[in-house]
Amino acid sequence: MMRKPIFVLLLNMLLFCVSASAQETQKSEFQQRAEAASQSGGSIGAARYQYIRAFEDYAAKGQMKEGVECAVKAAAMYHKENYYKEAFDLLRRVDQAINAAKQSPSAAAAQHYEVTKVRMDMYMKMRKGSNVKDQLDIMEGHANAAGNEDLKNDLLYNKAIYYYSFGLNAQGNAVFKEMVGKLTGKKEYDKVDGVYQTLIGNARKSGNANMVAQSYSNYIVWKDSVNALKVADKVNALKQQIAENEAVISEKDSKLTSRQAVIITLSIVAIILAAALILGGFALMYYIVLNRKQKKTIQMVNDNNALKAKFIGNISAQLEPSLRKLDTRTPEVKALLDFSQHVQTLAELENTLVTKVETEETSVQSFCEGLMNEIRGNVPGNVTLTVNAPKVSAKINKEYVSHILLHLLQNASCFASEGGTIVLEFKKRNVHTCQFLVSNTGQVIPEEKRDGLFKPFAEIRDLTTGDGLGLPICRLMAQKMDGDLTIDPTFTRGTRFVLQLQI
After folding, report:
1. Are 367 and 398 in contact (CB under 8 A)?
2. Is 134 helix (H, G, I), strand (E, B) or coil?
3. Could you tell me which of 358, 382, 361, 384 has the C-alpha nearest to residue 439?
4. Residue among 158, 62, 150, 175 nearest 119 (CA)
5. What is the C-alpha separation between 476 and 348, in angstroms, rounded?
6. Which residue, 167, 294, 461, 480, shows the most beta carbons closer than 10 Å to its own?
7. Phi (first) and psi of residue 396, to 5 degrees
């Protein structure tokens, strides 16, 4: 008497799950409009606008998977037209929406992976190798957190493209070998073939002859080796089919026994499903509680960091009046005063990093010449000073840009070689991107020390020889202007710093 109500209950639950799944997979009106505009070959801007609306609509409903898919397409359309700033701004919004959504950590990690992948594609298009590598490292963390083998295979594919694109053939071969080995081990030969064809096609489109040669050579070797595996698979498939036919014959001979076994098996499966539902409910509650605790912990850490920066800035501000009562001509006292001011500046920049800065239209040539004239008196007479800047204007924050470039020029004057040159250049890379470049001939900074130059408090120093906060402050100023400050790894005649800004 009890079996029928239990069966009805399970059937209702199944129908409810199917109905809920159908509702979740239904596309929103905005997404349908975006796809229609994209397929009809209409305006990219119109399709992009509808995809953004679709993302916002999905996010409001808590359907983050569909929302992220639409946002990723919109961002790709932005950077296809070289609107990098808009693309980066949209991706930041998507990451914030993912963090705010109530979903499992693995689902959030998978969505963050797709967002980071678009950033990697943009940096790849801009040929910024170090930024591409950073994004790949972040993608690897998300893929591991998601526990998704498809993402891990996709990561290997993008790593191979990165290595081949930047001439790192040995690393590219190793990564590609690992990826092919995984897919071949699963007998997913069509996927391997598709990956090779995609890689070769991308290499041809980008005009990368090295990547085409490497990909095609590896493809031929793999194609030869896999033919033998396919033959073996066919033989095994035939053996399996024979075994299955024999099993069918045996099953017909013992029909009654088989039916009883099926009934028992179905009963066991029903019990297991019921237990799985109960355990799944407990697991879901556990992850919800754990996620809330993690959010509180992250918020507490962020609050503590902000308070720490404010505390250090206040301490430095309180020390400054006492230090000024001492003899400021003493090198140690002067060094402490400079250190105190730098710490205050650093703390202020960290606390206001997301605050936008004002810009103004500036004549680039006269601006650069004025900065060079400020250091002219401190440069040895046998060092040549050169300004290469066109007669154009750009919208910049003159206070921050002046501070950064003067710091770089003063450092260049200290380390310029005898009879060498110091050059200040301006280059406009595209409609929304420009660069100021400061270079000097002389000793090259070792590669292993370059990253440490931009990290504050990276080493214990004698403050009378400098506190090492100048470049970290300059990079924070650049980031506050939606830009970055880096060392050009391709410059080998000395050192060249690159200040890249979005205009």
Report:
1. yes
2. helix
3. 384
4. 158
5. 10
6. 480
7. -135, 165
